[in-house]
Amino acid sequence: MIEIWLNPACSKCRTAVSELERAGSEYVVRRYLDQPPTTAELEDVLARLGLEPWDITRTADAAKLGVTLPAKDLDHRHAWLELMSDHPALIQRPIITASDGTTVVGRDPESLERVIDAG
C-alpha cells in the first residue's frame, strides 16, 4: 500500500495520482492541508528521505503565509518542524511512501517510478 500526501489543487499531485492509478497501485490519500503531519511524522518522513526540513519546504510560499523562516541549521531544526506542522502549505508535495518505507517527493517521473516499483 502506498500513502500519498497531497493537495488536490496541485498539478504535480494530480499527476502522481494518475500515475499510481495507471500502474494499478493501491494507495491512500492524505490531504495534508486538512490533516497536517505532526512533528514526529515529519521527522519520520525526513529520515526516510535523508533530507532536512528546509529541503522539503516551499520557501517561496512563506511570505504569502506571513511566515518568517528560521535559519537553515541544526539549532533551528525543531523550529522548522513545528512551522511545517503549523503551516502545512509550506510542505513540498506530493510526498509518497510505499509499504516498504521507500519515500519520495514525487515531482518527477523517476521518483514516481521508484515509489511505484517499491509499492
Automatic annotation (TrEMBL):
InterPro entries: Arsenate_reductase-like, Thioredoxin-like_sf. Pfam families: ArsC (PF03960). The lineage of its organism: Bacteria, Bacillati, Actinomycetota, Actinomycetes, Propionibacteriales. Belongs to the ArsC family. Gene3D superfamilies: Glutaredoxin. It comes from Nocardioides bizhenqiangii. This is ArsC/Spx/MgsR family protein. PROSITE patterns: ARSC. It comes from the Bacteria.
